[in-house]
């Protein structure tokens, strides 16, 4: 039986403004990469509680506790540096739920990841997609500040101008070119290639028409 849960509509720019405000408040002038774990633990004074097998059992990296006192995280991933970039986004995603959906979740008395998983499975697909999209948009904007993204993208475009092969491909297949520069573009932000490509596209910065007048 589907849940009656409904996720409130929010304008995309409102979500971005909230994320920018959180970063300005809890990570002021600290540069890149934005440390979402620091914001959780030292900015908001939320507990970080590692639990073994969280991802294996529930396919969840992290989970916002429903008393809003902390975030549970898969201990194997938390203790493995290989997952640092993934967890940076996961913590930011849970912060998205904290700042955007707290009013919605206040009345839900969940005490375990299993209950949360069951709730998600029973949520209407449209509501679930919107609920997660909001948290993802918040997370992406939090860890990829627009001003910094523009600077690093501009630098990447200057390098592209020196490569005749890419200049020929760019107007025909801009997504292929974006994939080729994403490994270096994502590095200063401490995030995955997928996240940086999503941010560049969602911020309306790709294709980079302003950097290549006449190509598009």
Strand content: 5-15%
Number of strands: 3
For the largest sheet, list the strands in their spatial order: 1-3-2
Counting structural domains, the number is 2
Major sheet details: 3 strands, mixed
Q: Compute the gyration radius: what is it? A: 19 Å
Principal-axes geometry comes out as: elongated
Structural features, described:
The chain is 58% helix and 6% strand. The protein is mostly helical and 216 residues long. A three-stranded mixed beta sheet has the order 1-3-2. β2 (62-64) and β3 form a beta hairpin.
Summarize the entry for a quick read.
It is built from twelve helices and three strands; from the N terminus they run H-H-E-H-E-E-H-H-H-H-H-H-H-H-H.
Topology at a glance:
Blueprint: H1 12-26, H2 36-43, E1 47-51, H3 54-58, E2 62-64, E3 70-74, H4 75-78, H5 84-100, H6 102-105, H7 113-122, H8 125-143, H9 146-160, H10 164-169, H11 174-185, H12 193-202
Parallel strand pairs: 1-3
Antiparallel strand pairs: 2-3
Task: Output the keywords.
3 strands; 216 residues; mainly alpha; Arc Repressor Mutant, subunit A; three-stranded mixed beta sheet
């Amino acid at each position: 039986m589907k849940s009656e849960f409904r996720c409130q509509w929010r304008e995309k720019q409102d979500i971005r403004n909230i994320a920018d405000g959180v970063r300005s408040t809890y990570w002021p002038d600290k540069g890149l990469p934005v440390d979402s774990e620091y914001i959780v633990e030292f900015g908001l004074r939320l507990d970080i509680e590692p639990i073994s097998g969280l991802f294996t059992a529930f396919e969840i990296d992290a989970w916002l506790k429903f008393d809003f006192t902390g975030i549970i995280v898969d201990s194997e991933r938390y203790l493995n540096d290989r997952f640092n970039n993934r967890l940076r986004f996961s913590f930011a995603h849970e912060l998205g739920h904290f700042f955007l959906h707290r009013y919605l979740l206040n009345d839900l008395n969940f005490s375990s990841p299993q209950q949360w998983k069951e709730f998600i499975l029973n949520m209407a697909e449209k509501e679930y997609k919107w609920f997660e999209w909001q948290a993802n948009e918040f997370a992406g904007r939090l860890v990829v500040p627009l001003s910094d993204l523009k600077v690093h993208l501009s630098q990447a475009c200057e390098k592209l101008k020196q490569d005749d092969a890419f200049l020929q491909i760019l107007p025909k297949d801009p997504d292929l070119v974006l994939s080729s520069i994403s490994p270096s573009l994502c590095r200063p932000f401490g995030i995955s290639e997928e996240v940086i490509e999503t941010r560049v596209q969602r911020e309306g910065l790709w294709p980079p028409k302003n950097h290549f007048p006449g190509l598009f």
